[in-house]
Amino acid sequence: xxxxxxxxxxxxxxxxxxxxxxxxxxxxxxxxxxxxxxxxxxxxxxxxxxxxxxxxxxxxxxxxxxxxxxxxxxxxxxxxxxxxxxxxxxxxxxxxxxxxxxxxxxxxxxxxxxxxxxxxxxxxxxxxxxxxxxxxxxxxxxxxxx
Length: 146
Known about the structure:
By secondary structure, this protein is of the alpha+beta class. Helix content is 29%, strand content 45%.
């Protein structure tokens, strides 16, 4: 069985690469195919949770409206894979050029992905993005590097 899990891990890593490519290409429909219909996302933007693939894609559409070119990088992705569920964590950074021509290096965030195997396909059922914060000020700390 470990060989099956190794193959599933490779498939999931490829799916994360598809997220990266989908963001770079601003391909909302390509991204839609990577999530469950009822995905729950705890993204950095309000509200506290986004429920359903349309809500998740609305967040990405907002990013695409602000950015002329988009780059996304995932670093240090660690995965744990079971038969029908898997989870992973790492760091992500959204960067690129804004519509006004301003280049931005973005910021590193912490990312968690939870996958569910549905009809033989690994889909994202939950994701979470967060930044650490300073307890005293209540402000996020966005200049940390992995």
